[in-house]
Amino acid sequence: MRIHVVDHPLVAHKLTTLRDERTDSPTFRRLADELVTLLAYEATRDVRTEQVDISTPVAGTTGVRLSHPRPLVVPILRAGLGMLEGLVRLLPTAEVGFLGMIRDEETLEAKTYATRMPEDLSGRQVYVLDPMLATGGTLIAAIDLLIERGADDVTAVVLLASPEGVEAMELALAGKPVTVVTAAVDDHLNEQGYIVPGLGDAGDRLYGTAG
Ligand SMILES: O=P(O)(O)OC[C@H]1O[C@H](OP(=O)(O)OP(=O)(O)O)[C@H](O)[C@@H]1O
Ligand SMILES: O=c1cc[nH]c(=O)[nH]1
Ligand SMILES: [Mg+2]
After folding, report:
1. Most-buried pick from 28, 96, 132, 162 (CB within 10 A)?
2. Which ligand 2 atom sits nearest the alpha carbon of residue 134?
């Protein structure tokens, strides 16, 4: 597993406003969207392309286009939905699948309540979206499922990670074709499994509801 922490002043600026408890839901949604587009620029660095011959009004030339099969983007509901537009802005022809997952706030175990994506992901590049990598339970279960279905290159785009979550993913996904792209790795997880300093509950802050 590879981890890439995007070091850029605009990323740091937007992340700071996201963290701020005074930021309201509409602003949080807009900033999350902008931040994902910046992260997506890094996350798609290895997107698969093929050579293509075209003619400009002046001359023939060779360029590139995204190869087939097209990448699959999978937001993890609910909070990952707030990252979808920011990513498909850069990959408008990507297919989109959905995973609904919820973490039990007592046991911190992730449960899957919805799966809507192709059964066969053989040879597919997949971008999985979830703002928070806390214990890692959710992303590990999601990525295991994607790899079981045949995905051979998985990039998780997250806004924030904890060191504990990164370590859990490194252990669980050792040797697997997985990259994590994040805006920051924070200090630690607290006893409730929240990232510290973090930004609180991403789903609640995106959608203005609790639970
Ligand atoms: O790394 P983990 O410890 O598994 O925790 C991270 C998960 O918790 C949050 O989702 P939540 O369960 O709150 O669901 P929601 O998106 O519906 O709010 C978050 O969006 C991740 O999916
Ligand atoms: O800090 C955290 C941990 C899990 N889920 C969140 O939304 N925030
Ligand atoms: Mg939540």
Report:
1. 132
2. 3
Q: Hey, what amino acid is at 119?
A: E
Q: Where exactly are the structural domains of the chain?
A: 2-48+69-207
> What is the C-alpha to C-alpha distance for residues 202 and 131, in angstroms, rounded to an integer?
7
The interface predicted TM-score (ipTM) is: 0.97
> The pTM is what?
0.96
CA 121 – CA 148 distance, rounded (Å): 9
Nearest CA to ligand 2 atom 8: 201
- Compute the radius of gyration of the chain from its Cα atoms: 17
Return the CATH architecture of domain 2-48+69-207.
Answer: 3-Layer(aba) Sandwich (3.40)
Digit-coded pLDDT (tens) for 1-42: 999 999 999 999 999 999 999 999 999 999 999 999 999 999
Q: Any residues with CB less than 8 A from the CB of 99 and at least 6 apart, and which?
A: 74, 75, 76, 77, 80, 112, 114, 115, 116, 117, 128, 142, 145
Q: Which is the catalytic residue, given 16, 61, 93, 107?
A: 107
How many CA atoms lie within 13 Å of 115's alpha carbon, on the beta-carbon side? 10
Q: Which of 128, 78, 130, 68 is nearest to 100 (CA)?
A: 78
Is residue 152 part of the annotated active site? The answer reads no
At position 6, the amino acid (one-letter code) is V
- Length of the chain in terms of residues written: 211
Residue at token pair 């290895």? 46
How far is Cα of residue 180 from the mean position of the Cα atoms in its chain?
A: 8
